[in-house]
Write the structure tokens for this entry.
Amino acid sequence: MYAARVCKDCGADCVFFCETCGKDLCSVHKGVHMVDLDNANHFVILYRERNGYFIKDEYCEKHPELACKLWCDSCDEPFCDECWKEKKKDHEKHAMMEVFEAYKKYKEEFKPKIAQLRSEVLPYNRAILAGIEPDIPECEAQIAELKEKMRDKAERLKKYIDKCVKKKCPKRLKRLENKIIGQLNQQCIDLQEHIDYLRELVYRYEHSANKPAEFLLFLKDHPLDKVPDIPESCKELPEMTFNTEVTKEDVLKLLGEITVEETGIRKPEYRFTLERLRVVKYLGTVPVTGVKSACHMSCKSATEFWISDKVNLVLIDQTGKKLSDVKDKLDKECGVHAVTKDGDLIYIDKKSNIRKLLKDKKDKPSTLINSKESWETLSVFCSFESDDILVGMIIHNINRAMVVRYSSDGKEKHFIECEHYTTPLFVTENHNQDVVVSNHDRNSSSVVVTNGGGEYRFSFNGPPKEPGFKPRSICVDGLSNILVYDDNSKSIVMIDVDGHYLEIFQVQQNLIQSPRCVSYSIDNHTVFVYSSSNSHVVVSRHINRQEYLGKPTIDPDADKKKKKKKKKKKKEETKEKKKEDA
């Protein structure tokens, strides 16, 4: 007897097989297996392909009785024996191979791409789709709001028109009337003067016989050929018209145009892709060398991270091997380094300048931002959304602190000078562009959060019923929760995006002993916590992708169910017919 292979997760018929971990999977749990971040590099195949391929003959279109056996790699064309005889001369210099060999070649070539589509692209598209659905009621709400605004504006326009018709229009028409009547009165005056002048000319002419010299001198000053018939000011009464027509376009212009701004390509929102696990999952431990009591970490990737103590700054891989170090970093226990989206290191040097070390480490570090006069640079962070650089700085003697935002090429954009800042030891940015500062104060330290524009949002003063909160190393996870190391309780505190306390972050079996700093890798959503008791970094995960991203949208057994339904319906119809005949 042969036992049927079943899915290890649900017991359904086995359809797929994971080559990486050897797990039998059904159609549903294949997708769930692939979206799990732990299985990001796993490759799944059809179970029947596990022990080789069962190849069906594929017949030539021109010669239906012959199977296609050859493949021209230059022309991407299959050949049966007859086709090959006919076209051999045209393809003699082309790369020819057996169809199955070509299939294996290209299947292997596209294996990484298919793995990426399964584990990354498909889930992200599902998440984007999930993000579109709530946008529909949001769009409807925005349109409804626009309608209300248009109604309000129409009411205001109506009131203003009534006001204009009652008060402003009569005044304006009266001014126009006075102006035109004034012009007409002036015409009367000018015309009367012109008539008097013409009469004098006629009189002089008629009585010139006895005084010819005087008449000639008069003509010199008043040439008769240049005398106008009427004064220039005597114009016809102007026609006054008013356009009484009102069109829809006129009304729409009054109401104003609705502007629609394009906002770019959609990105998957983390709330549709990720979810918190009930239990933090332990992934491994990395031994750390080159630092004594680390106070800050920056993840370069899922497998490498920069870590520093007061003096040293080193790059460590997942095996604990030291890959590189920096000699001129600022000698302070604060957030003196960060990593850019491209994986380059930015850090504060001993002169308080911000320097950049490219990830390939071929060139020496270059100065990106010079220190501000009188200001001491304490902390730096590089935004994983915009690649902007946030820099925390203070002036000691006047107790002034601020966070300055620079572009990725070191140009100052703006600064945030919050009254709650005292000493911004560590700084980070949340996914909603909130600026999150681990703020040190002799009296009461806190996590201070402002929005991207610098408006104060909230301060977190520590877990409830635990006085003496001393926040230090800080980061945010994929769900916008804030993770901060509390030097008072020697623990990692988790708060949400709005400053509500969630929990103390701890791995099962209390694997994190005496933590000193925390960091987060956005690449595979892992948390790195440095444990000073044994100089190790504990790697764990408290977030995973949501299962629905991997589940098929179409029931794989839908066709079978449809056929069964049809058969059942046919049987019922036959029974009813028999009853009627009886």
Notes: DSSP finds nine helices and 30 strands in the chain.
